[in-house]
Amino acid sequence: MTAVQPSLISTLPGRYYTDPGIFAAEQDRIFERAWTCVALAADLAAPGAFRTVTVGRESVVLVRGREGAVRAFLNVCRHRGAQLCTEESGQLRRNLQCPYHAWTYDFTGKLIAAPNLTSMPDIDRVEYGLLPVHLREWLGYVWICLGDDPPSFEADVAGEVAARLGDVALIDHYAIDGLALGRRITYDVAANWKLIIENFMECYHCATIHPELTEVLPEFAEGYAAQFFVGHGAEFGADIEGFTVDGTAGPERLPGVSDDQDRRYYAITIKPQVFINLVPDHVILHRMTPLAPDRTIVECDWLFAPEVVASGKDLDASVELFHRVNVQDFDACERTQPAMSSRAYLNGGVLVPSEHHIGAFHDWVVQKLE
Ligand code: FES
Ligand code: FE
After folding, report:
1. Which residues contact ligand 1 via a Cβ below 6 A?
2. pTM over 0.90
3. Which domains does the chain possess?
């Protein structure tokens, strides 16, 4: 006898969204061990360009070396621990110098100078160099992993794309690493990072809170997220010309996008902190940084063909559509966060059938924390 799947299955209990102990465990077991996407490689344009980013509970400095490669180091001086870079981004001239006692490192992390260093010939300059962090570049972004033994990038990152699109090669049609930044908006969201992921994974809310999006993608009004079906992209409405706030035409379709990808929207979640949205003429990429159980920074990039950005074309109608979706989604997450500590949510809530795939995300979180 086959068991009948009940309509409602349970969510995580409320404490998973509020408990500082669970949040610390997530930082340790999830964010400090997984591959996380931390910067657009083009934001580190020239040798010496640096950015500081937060991953889990660590500060990491990214710097482009003289020969062009980007490297990542823990942002901690090996002498007595002062933070090396306190600015979010900038341009270094020749090296990284600690502002405390002036230990100086080159862009490969090697210790190259320090006051009185020549009188301490026994110091190994590589051993006392900056501590490197594993780094990969993919889709034009810098991905890093703080773990000593990183998980397979192919399985955990590219694998999520393959699982969603049916074939990882289909994302290459958008040639994301050749796109240019058209707009970036940073959202400071008063909600737990998992509420933001869960919201992104379902479309049961689309008819209620996303009037503009459901106008462009009428099937979203039925409540099934594009992520529910492998390989499915939600189709534009018949009278819709482009993925814009009013359905008017956007820029030209990207050259590699195939006919069956045209006039469709694909959404991909790469756990634990990236969302990729593919439409024919641009790509929208979200990166999350959880800062507290109830606070998450979301950076959203709108990427277009370089010639479109260079032309100075007005991109407002394209950007405005997903900006509104973001605001609508994050408002919903912020409205939900306070209830996570209510006695009403002690045992959590429920998922309807069109949200059951969120249950697999909950299982993943619980298994990581075990
Ligand atoms: Fe950096 Fe002393 S802590 S040089
Ligand atoms: Fe939404």
Report:
1. 77, 79-82, 98, 100-103
2. yes
3. 1-34+169-370 (3.90.380.10), 36-150 (2.102.10.10)
